[in-house]
Amino acid sequence: MSSAFTPTSPLRQRFRPLWWLAITFIAISFVTRVVLLIMSGNEVAHTPLNLLYAFGVGFGYDLITYIYVAWPLVLFLWLVPTRRATVSGLGQWLLWILALALVYALCLGVLYALYRAHIGMTWPLVVLFLLVLPIPGFAYVSRGGQWALYGLALVLLYGLLFVAASELVFWNEFSVRFNFIAVDYLVYTNEVIGNIRESYPIGRWLALLVVGALVVFAIGRRGLRARDDGSRLWQRGKIALLWLVLTVVSLAAVNGGMKDRTSNNYVNELAGNGIYQFFNAFRSSHLDYAKFYRTLPDDQAFRLVREGLKTPDATYLSDDPQDLTRAIRRVGPEQHLNVVLISVESLSGDYLGTFGSKENITPYLDSLVSQSLFFDNLYANGTRTVRGLEALSLSVPPTPGDSLLKEHNNENLFSLADIFNDRGYQSDFVYGGYGEFDNMNYFFGHNGYRTVDRRDIPKGATIHSENVWGVADEDLYTLALKQMDDAHAAGKPFFLHIMTTSNHRPYTFPAGRVSQANQTRPGAVAYTDWSIGDFIKRAREKSYFDDTVFVITADHCASSAGKTSVPVNRYHIPLWIYAPKHIKPQRVERLMGQVDIAPTLLGLLNFSYRSRFFGYDLFQLEPGRERAFPATYEKLGYLHNDVLTVLEPQRKLEQMKPDYATGDATPITPQDEGQIDQAIAYYQVASGLFRHGGLVRRPTDSTAVEPLPAAAASVPVPASSTAPATASSIGSVPAPTH
């Protein structure tokens, strides 16, 4: 083997283009890292230690990534015949195509078995197989072989530059390298490509990338000279085998979390490689909690959760230590009011004047604070819309990897809609775009909701504005009002969950609504605010308005970036519960998790029902037991008593005292083992129940629960659990103690 790599050896000649690709790739990665560092601004101090870590560790990840990136060229250099084509004639080409198709099918099967990756996620493999397809028709040392090598090199070069440019755009939006969001982009290409086209001058950028690729190619094309004095396929196969071994070893020995060793998350992200992080997120999209995270014995985990979910109004219905079913019993009759739950796209608490913003872009929502039951310290489950929808509909902590909205076997789960449906409500999920995105229509349609989306807008209806994500919010609310009118006309109370889209890039909205500029985030937030005010104004004209509760919150914040792995300030969202005839305006300062919204709403309606929710009715909870579950797709946070515990893959964890204003955090020493056990228990139990069917709705869940007798009202409850006034007691209940 050593003699095969003398300076003039055929193998050395044949595989010399790998050096060209290595130098080109490392240079592009270095420049990308420099630009991202500049874009990070003051978030990264330019100290020698930070720079050495970002670029030193980054170089290591670049080398690992190069092994993957080089595979198309390795296959080309291995398989292309040296002096004459090996495949010719229709029969041979058909056999070659069939062989490739079988290999492709095998790859799909392996990826599905390992990562449950369906064809919508693996379509880029088609590009690789298209590159391999013509290889046997060339002779490497011929003119055709040389031009084929040039062509492949140009394709790879353009692809690397395209990825680098995409990373800059992605960083500008999320302040991280490619992650699970980028993996989703593979599946929902229509919305993603449409969003990019509507947000950026994509044609000009693509043209500039072509020019850039040609310039770089012209400078380095001497490194792509096709020379081979007589290597054989089996000799070249040794190099391909070596490359395969390097690939397998790197997959087993290296993971995306190994770079996360500094206290500054921006530095950790800079130390990564976008392409590597993309594949790491792909591998992590279906994380098995029990396999990757710290665990407790199941009996201990369930015991902690059952103790944690106890409230004065709840009674466990089974002695089974792994059954969370509780009877929630309230005093007096239920109030079957209409409910409209609006989850607003990316409505960060930072945008509100109520929370200190000076931009004056939410005047209506700020004015609604004094007219509503308003919650000051609510924290979202995650950084994606699906996490918010999951928390609001299922009241569960986020499971690692994909949201339950996108998991397999997510049908017939115990949901908020089920509780309303048992009382004769019409439950709708209303979305202004196409509900196939993020699997929303499938999930809601199989979990108690009727799905209503862009297709249900009547033909000829006025559409004031639309983009790839959906119609303008005011047109979405027009669609929602129609569902409300229809349900009321049919004599049914209604529960609507409305998901907005206008506060999303490209931030377009109808002209003349607000003074802020179109296609800007402040303009989109201001329009979001205006459209909610317009919706409430139109709803006020309806006969059912006085008996309707409006619940307004966010799916998640507009930004998820911060110096820490889970910056809590990027999870702070508002919550209004507005029903002027039924709910007394108050401000509630207690900590609240997004999973608590559904149980708290049901408590305000005085519902008695069966529940397996992980959330609380906040007004039935003793002070000091509040908690929230801020998380990413793989870092699972548990916020309780001003301590943030973060569970991570490889059974790692962090525990810190968070700064709620800046998102920074100070590590806690020694760690609070009790809180660590609580965090583990909630996430382990939630994930395990879903995996084993424990979150599925049961026929007995519809069993009516008798309310407590009026005499029970004399039983003292904690002062902080005093509920706001409902229809049966308006004006008679003092404000909660905070």
TrEMBL record:
Record carries keyword Transmembrane: yes
Transmembrane portions of the chain: 18-39, 59-81, 93-115, 121-141, 148-171, 202-220, 240-258
Membrane topology according to the record: Multi-pass membrane protein
Pfam family, one: Sulfatase
Source organism, top-level taxon: Bacteria
Domain Sulfatase N-terminal as annotated: residue spans: 338-606
Region feature (Disordered): 713-738
Keywords, ordered alphabetically: Cell membrane, Membrane, Transmembrane, Transmembrane helix
Compositional bias ranges of the Low complexity kind: 713-729
Location of the protein in the cell: Cell membrane
CDD domains xref list: LTA_synthase
Principal subcellular localization: membrane
Protein name: Sulfatase
Top-level taxonomy: Bacteria, Pseudomonadati, Pseudomonadota, Gammaproteobacteria, Lysobacterales
